[in-house]
Amino acid sequence: MTTLLEVKNVSKHFGNDTKALSNIDFSVKEGEFVSIIGPSGAGKSTLLRCINRMIDASSGDIIFDNDHVYELNKRELKKVRRKIGMIFQHYNLVNRLSVIENTLHGRLGYKSTLAGILGLHSEDEKLQAANILQILGLEDQLYKRSDELSGGQKQRVGIARALIQNPKLLLCDEPIASLDPNSSKVIMDHLRNICTSMGITVVVNLHQVDVALKYSDRIIGVNSGKIVFNGTSQNITSSDIHQIYGSDEGKLIFDLGGSHVG
Amino acid sequence: MQAEGPIKPFPSHTGQDLDKRLLDLLSKKPFSKSTIVIRLSVLILAILTMYAFVSFDYKDVKLLDALLLTMDNLKIMFFEPHLKHFTFTQALYQVSITLGLAFLTTIFGAIIALMLGLLAAGNISTKPLSIVIKGTVALIRAVPTVLWVLIFAVAAGLGSVAAVIGMTFHSISYLVKAYSESFEEIDKGAIEALQASGANWWQIVFQVVIPSSITYIISWTFMRFEINFAVAVAMGAAAGAGGIGFDMFMASGFYFDLSEIGAITYFILIIAICLEIFATHIKRKLKVLS
Ligand SMILES: Nc1ncnc2c1ncn2[C@@H]1O[C@H](COP(=O)(O)OP(=O)(O)O)[C@@H](O)[C@H]1O
Ligand SMILES: [Mg+2]
Asked: Which residue of chain A is at minimal alpha-carbon distance from B186?
């Protein structure tokens, strides 16, 4: 399989003292499902946002789909961003707009400024939106305002908005951190399904180890801005978890996680 | 711990001694600095007021006579209103001119302020630009509308042109502040999401920023329309901008016709009440929508 994403020696500091990431190195193959785990404040969100340059890394190089992301001009960067869908903890929908309008926002990057301003979408695009929403089980909510949805439904709209971009990569920043266990499972199942059956590469930030172990092909453990583990979920040991989360906490999490995974 | 056994009853009555002690405690309310300042201010104001009444130069005006005469004038104004120097239809036409002035300046102001408001909002603009625009409009806002009209009258001459420009100018500064603060209130998550998908600035403005703040935009614009109506009446009189304000100026300063002033006041009052009812109606509609 070909390499889709390569992160080379990336560092990021905020101001002079906060070093959020230091010398991050990893790569992701096409079609892989990778989870990034680590305690809160480890730098997971920063790492994810450095990939599509929502945050500019201080140094290092990122290659996505054969483009050097940090050598692109504004225009070229927008084109690359169209190929990267992003999913957020708080869904980040426009509350006043309907499910389908929010979904079609994913097409804006492909439109002329005027068509985007006026919200003009072709029949094809609308059909595609309805199609994706049906796959995600939202076909009965097409014209509902998005603030009338449950958290799990909102996140599915977030996924639909990312999918309609026709992305090669999905970046998910704690997609289930605000959801109950049932909705979390639905969302994770959808993400796994998107990866397996659509062949879209998924990189997901998580803080639940058990979920990461259950769904991922590979796990990257981050602590204090450094990668401390990078391997398959079969190969992870309790001492690795210790290293990622720090002593006692790691033990607790692993015991819990282990029992769930079975 | 005393978890078992009957709960001790709340003492139902306090003895005379206890009451006295409580009253004593109550009377020991701490004397704070602000109470002293407030009491002192009230005292000084009272003294000044009394001194003023004593030292006024009343000339030949007797208090009682003056009061009665004022009452009489008010009676003529509000209980015997009539139109002498123009007809009802003409009055209606003049009111529509005043409304037109208010409408025009509000629309001009709103269109320009929308653009500037976007550039002034910290979350969708750049910091230096935002600071420059906010500072400039704060300066413009600090000068009252009437003064702006008079300032523009230097170039355009006293009249409707100066009124339109001056009122638009002040409306812009007012609405830029209102709009930009509404824009800054909106959730930055959706903006981030569309930036991440490759959408450009204009698309984000029209697909996220404006839909999210449309209720605020409408209600602030209407608020300014009401203000502009009141200003337009005053401008008719002060700047010769025409409309019902000018008729009022003529009735009072030229014909000394109290009854006509009363009639015109009723006119303006009715319009103002209609606007108020309309505004509440719109706001209720918007609340249902938002
Ligand atoms: N915009 C910012 N300004 C300053 N410091 C930041 C900013 N964003 C993140 N940080 C810091 O960077 C570190 C990593 O944060 P983050 O990537 O959000 O961690 P995580 O997502 O793993 O919880 C934290 O110490 C955080 O305080
Ligand atoms: Mg985070």
From this structure: A94
CA-to-CA dists, residue B226 to A193, B103, B163, angstroms: 57, 9, 16
Q: Which residues of B touch A (CB under 8 A)?
A: 187, 189-190, 192-200, 202-203, 205-208, 211-212, 214, 290
Task: Give the residue, out of A45, A90, A172, A227, with the most ligand 1 atoms within 8 A of its beta carbon, to mutate for a pocket test.
Answer: A45
* A254 compared with A38, residue with greater pLDDT: A38
Could you tell me the residue ranges of all domains in chain A? 1-83+167-262, 92-166
**pLDDT tens digits, A103-143:** 999 999 999 999 999 999 999 999 999 999 999 999 999 99
In the predicted structure, residue B155 carries a pLDDT above the cut 90? no
- Cα–Cα distance for residue pair A177/B172, rounded to 1 Å: 43
Closest CA to B102 of B194, B5, B167: B167
**Tokens 């001194």 found at:** B51
State the best of B191, B202, B205, B207 to mutate against chain A, taking most chain A CBs within 10 Å: B207
CB A169 within 8 A of CB A64: yes
A176-215 residue pLDDT tens:
999 999 999 999 999 999 999 999 999 999 988 999 999 9
pLDDT in tens, B67-112: 888 998 888 888 888 888 888 888 889 889 999 999 999 999 999 9
Q: What is the value of ipTM here, to two decimals?
A: 0.90
Full-model pTM: 0.80
- For the record, the structure tokens of A205 come out as 């930030």
CA-based nearest residue in chain A for residue B206: A117
Provide the 10 A C-beta neighbour count for residue A82.
Answer: 20
Give chain B's radius of gyration (CA, Å).
29
CATH number attached to the domain at B87-289: 1.10.3720.10
Q: Which residues contact B239 (CB under 8 A, 6 or more apart)?
A: B146, B149, B150, B153, B158, B159, B162, B163, B166
CA distance A187 to A193: 10
Tokens of residue B57, six digits: 């130069």
Q: How much distance in Å is there from the Cα of A177 to the middle of ligand 2?
A: 10
| Six-digit token string for A242 | 């210790």
A203: left (phi over 0), alpha (psi -120 to 50) or beta: beta
- pLDDT confidence of residue A49: 96
For residue B190, which residues of chain A lie inside 8 Å, CB to CB? 92-94
Distance CA A202, CA A221 (A): 16
pLDDT tops 50 at residue A262: no
Give the number of the atom of ligand 1 that is nearest the alpha carbon of residue A222.
22
Among 3.40.309.10, 2.40.128.20, 3.30.43.10, 3.40.50.300, name the CATH number for the domain at A1-83+167-262: 3.40.50.300
